[in-house]
Automatic annotation (TrEMBL):
ATP binds at G11, R74, C75, G104, D105, G106, S107. Belongs to the phosphofructokinase type A (PFKA) family. ATP-dependent PFK group I subfamily. Eukaryotic two domain clade "E" sub-subfamily. Belongs to the phosphofructokinase type A (PFKA) family. ATP-dependent PFK group I subfamily. Eukaryotic two domain clade 'E' sub-subfamily. Residues 3-309 form the Phosphofructokinase domain. The active site is at D152 (proton acceptor). This is ATP-dependent 6-phosphofructokinase. Homotetramer.
Length: 382
């Protein structure tokens, strides 16, 4: 029987519980045994109760839950070779030779590194007497399958990451709340949203909530002109009769000199044109709470495909990442997707912003173009 361990790693995202549920149940359906690896990579390193078998009933009710019930953590030990040796030993002792990791690009890179080191880790464990040659003989090859769980939608080669739409939904709900008080007082609000180095949440929230302006890292405005431009747009909307002003700022927003654009700077501009302005930083409410239908569906379909990918993997095929492109569940070489994701940062650093947009994915690029078009004919209404 194939033994698969499933883990969630990095920042939690709504839909991670649904992933674990899908892997456990699809695993059982395909006659495998599934182990829950608790607290991210710490579960592998520490073993014991943090690496334990899961049954069908253990994941009952997990489909809609937010967060991750098997925990997630930043594991420093796994970054060290001795930590990975302990992890390999724990896996061999339990007969586990496949790992399904749901996390961001850092967690998935760690998994792929572990796979490439696996034969040498086993050799070292035998050489140091931690395991016998007979114990390791059956476990020559480690299978890794990646699923992307991240509210930021920040992975290239997939249209959506698990959790992004739940987070977007939450942001829209919050902005709707803010809008009613803003319009009552005729106030301006600067709403800061998450997304670290990726502006997808900011962009989509801006479109979905009819914001006056959006600041995201991939499309930085001119360092010299953004303040005046912002004031002009917001004043024009006011003159057309809008009673509220909403500006969305992604936490990683930059200008074209790569200097951060902060919510406070944006607020200062709005105050200068006479608007009574407040800043709301949405923070972790964006990451918690239950998963929207799309994320439940995505997590379930991808979790099932992850088990299939484990069963179909060979020692020669690169580790796959399960993605979704044009509505279809697809498998991509994990490290190629990670490399493309990293080149977004490189393109931004080289001030090649169009390239950065293109590298992220086509959906992102097209949505942005559409938005620009809309804003050109904007009459200030929502
Ligand atoms: O990557 C997910 C994310 O929520 C980012 O949007 C945000 O910058 C970061 O994690 C916050 O991390 P932490 O929860 O460690 O503060």
């Amino acid at each position: 029987k194939k033994r698969i361990a499933v883990m969630t790693s990095g920042g939690d995202a709504p839909g991670m519980c649904a992933v674990v549920r899908a892997v456990v149940r699809a695993g059982i359906y395909y006659d495998c045994e599934v182990y829950g690896c608790y607290e991210g990579y710490s579960g592998l390193v520490q073993g014991g109760d943090l690496l334990r078998k899961m049954d069908w009933d253990d994941v009952r009710g997990w489909l809609s839950l937010g967060g991750t019930l098997i925990g997630t953590a930043r594991c420093m030990e796994f970054k060290e070779r001795w930590g990975r040796l302990k992890a390999a030993k724990n896996m061999v002792l339990r007969g586990i030779d496949a790992l399904v990791v749901c996390g961001g690009d850092g967690s998935l890179t760690g998994a792929d590194l572990f796979r490439s080191e696996w034969p040498s880790l086993l050799e070292e464990l035998v050489a140091t007497g931690e395991l016998s040659a007979e114990q390791t003989a059956k476990y020559r090859h480690l299978t890794i399958v990646g699923l992307v769980g991240s509210i930021d939608n920040d992975m290239a080669s997939t249209d959506n990451t698990i959790g992004a739409y739940s987070s977007l939904e939450r942001i829209c709900e919050m902005v709707d709340y803010i809008d009613s008080t803003a319009a009552s007082h005729s106030r301006a609000f600067v709403v800061e949203v998450m997304g670290r180095h990726c502006g997808w949440l900011g962009l989509m929230a801006g479109i979905s909530c009819g914001a006056d302006a959006i600041f995201i890292p991939e499309r930085p405005p001119s360092a010299e002109g953004w303040r005046e431009e912002l004031k002009k747009v917001c004043l024009r909307h006011r003159e057309k009769g809008r009673r509220k002003t909403t500006v969305i700022v992604a936490e990683g927003a930059l200008d074209d000199e790569l200097q951060p654009i902060t919510s406070q700077q944006v607020k200062d501009c709005l105050v200068e044109i006479g608007l009574d302005t407040r800043i709301t930083t949405l923070g972790h409410v964006q990451r918690g709470g239950s998963a929207v239908a799309f994320d439940r569906m995505l997590a379930t379909m991808q979790g099932v495909d992850a088990v299939r990918a484990v069963l179909e993997s060979t020692p020669d095929t690169p580790s796959p990442m399960i993605g979704i492109v044009d509505g279809k569940i697809v498998r991509q070489p994990l490290m190629e997707a990670v490399k493309l994701t990293k080149s977004v940062a490189t393109a931004i650093a080289a001030k090649k912003f169009d390239e950065a947009m293109g590298l992220r994915d086509s959906t992102f690029k097209e949505s942005y173009a559409n938005f620009l078009d809309i804003s050109k004919h904007d009459d200030g209404s929502q």
